[in-house]
Structures
1.
Amino acid sequence: MSTATSDAGAGTTAGFVEPTPSALLLLGQGRDLASERGVECPGALPSPSDPDLVERARAARAALGDSLFVLGHHYQRDEVIQFADVTGDSFRLAREAAARPQAEHIVFCGVHFMAESADILTAPDQKVLLPDLAAGCSMADMAAIEQVEEAWEVLADAGVADSTVPVTYMNSSAAIKAFTGRHGGTVCTSSNAQVALRWAFDQVGGAEGQGTVLFMPDQHLGRNTAVLQLGLRPEDCVVFDPRRPGGGLTAQQLRDARMVLWRGHCSVHGRFSARNVSEVRERVPGVTVLVHPECTHEVVTAADMVGSTEYIVRALGAAEPGSSWAIGTELNLVRRLARQHPELDVHYLDSTVCFCSTMNRIDLPHLVWTLESLVQGRTVNRVVVDADDAHWARVALDQMLALPGL
Ligand code: SF4
């Protein structure tokens, strides 16, 4: 669990709507601290139409000097990314934050779980700020800590918890990372999921043995890695649905499984279909289809290449001039890559727009508000992970850092 704090002063909760279990929770207008989304975002934001926003952001940055470090995830809007000191995927950004002990304030232009990871990996006196607290991640939200603890009990009842190692994707709450650390598991990224899974299986007898991995929260990354990189059969993987009794699985199914995949997915990458792949091949002869491993197994097996956002950035950087590419990942990144590589013919894999709506909540007005608040001596939207979760999440993150290849 993490908390979000602001010392923005009185009046910041005006218009606060107490959520009810059945109420539609409007992003940024309610508070649900158990969720990645829907936490309150206090303060009077500048108008998006203010023509001076860019100048205001520049002036605030200059005033804050080295005490400020701005991180920008690859999926952020251009209007925001122009102010980032460094860009990258969630793991790279957390490490960059940890490598800047002189920065008192770290403004994370990304989503909530990323700010939590940065808080865990930075010194206690460094403050991590998320310009809009409603910038959560729908995938991370698909695994609540209470659900994961119940799932572990189901595995224990089936007699497999002792031979199961949890592996959680970076895209998860600090509480889930802490659960993973407490149970001897590791965090992984989309770049090192293969190494992390091999390590996890080695703890319980190897990939050819009898042990099990509980993989959270992205079923697609887990399945794609287990089947395509570790050589497990699709039928070795079962999907645990936290909304169904016993996960919707029998005890025997759990005993027979090698991979118990959490029923979670990315709402952006889950949209791509095998039909998108066949259509782009018809439309663009000779195209190379490159997709993120959060895409479904069907899409990944239909594509030519699969890799993390950092891999996609590197692949286009090394591509043959004149070559054609169809990219299956978030649209802000694909558009930016197309602009950075005019020598390439870059297409978006889907024919419809596919932004990450929560990533897009970080916009220039929120960034200006955050920076100007700091200039005025007010720390707003600080993300703080509680000490016990931070300790155990750090254990799981350190386990990942100890894996070969990082
Ligand atoms: S792109 Fe998907 S995994 Fe990434 S923040 Fe958005 S919803 Fe979460």
2.
Amino acid sequence: MSELKYAYWVPNVSGGLVVSKLPQETDWSFEANKRYVLAAEDAGFDFALLQTRFFASYGAEYQLEAATLAAALASVTKKINLISAVHPGLWHPGVYAKMMATLDHISNGRAAVNVVSGWFKGEFTGYGEPWLEHDERYRRSEEFIRVLRELWTEEEATFKGDFYRINGAPLKPKPVQKPTPPIFQGGNSRAAKEMAARVSDWYFMNGNTTDGFKKQIEEVKELAAKEGRTLQYAVNGFVIVRDTEEEAVSVLRDIVSHADVEAVKGFGEAVKQAGASSKGKEGMWSNSTFEDLVQYNDGFKTGLIGTAEQVADRIIELKQLGADLILTGFLHYEKDIKDFGEKVIPLVKQKEVQLQKEVISV
Ligand SMILES: Cc1cc2nc3c(=O)[nH]c(=O)nc-3n(C[C@H](O)[C@H](O)[C@H](O)COP(=O)(O)O)c2cc1C
């Protein structure tokens, strides 16, 4: 079994990872993010995920641009991989392929991309760009990924699509990673899953229940098998580790009872509209409750809330379901990242060794 990997959401958007007025020791600034990435690298995290957000919205007033910040974080770190989220439609894939090749050189092979197809109509109309219908956004994202791959691997790339045209374009230097930097992608809709099966390396999931994850992973695996491909799977979970389960649950209750109700409801309406416009109306967040949306990627649902022992057990369960990577978010970034590295990551490893011994001795 391959080793489980860990990622954390970079809080490059103000307001933290929960839309709550409960005080959070989490800051969006560059200086703070420099401290968090160094703490995460030290703690044993493999990836940092930088969000893309351009406009103030739903409790997030300030945002640092993902790729620019990734380049700065790359220059102060040595091991951690930096995943920059990108919106096709706001970037040309040729320009972005060049940026990521540059980041791969700055970081010596630690660049990765998360291609997001978007829910935030206001960002597109605000920048004067057309807002495409749901499945059309995925068609464009798929072309975007195909162009990235062409430019990263071909001497001279040519691509004739409905959204992008590339005419004998060279890209030098090629990225350090071969064949290409990893491409991540999320989304619950059928269009998202089909696109993942065809062109992505990693499939990101919002927080979910055991059954929810199982269903999603099975569906994408089946679609990928039809394409003769295999993917890796990443699950999101908000982490609250405390000495007792009661303490951890009481922190969750505090986060939810202090929720910024107006912001959570506004976000809920925006994302549900985006998901409802998918063909099967099964887009991400379509079943999310008010409480789920307080962590805007349904992170509470995953159940990484309790003692270190309980959280480690749940992580092992997620791995057994097929997760290759756990994407984490925290309330008090610096302290919680350190705690996770000290208490949870080694405990998971210890438990896995124990489990393997038990399997061998049976
Ligand atoms: C792990 C993860 C990270 C995401 N990051 C961003 C982001 O940084 N910016 C953004 O606008 N959307 C982000 N999204 C949302 C996607 O753009 C998309 O709206 C969402 O996956 C819904 O897709 P669906 O309608 O196919 O279910 C993210 C989704 C996931 C699962």
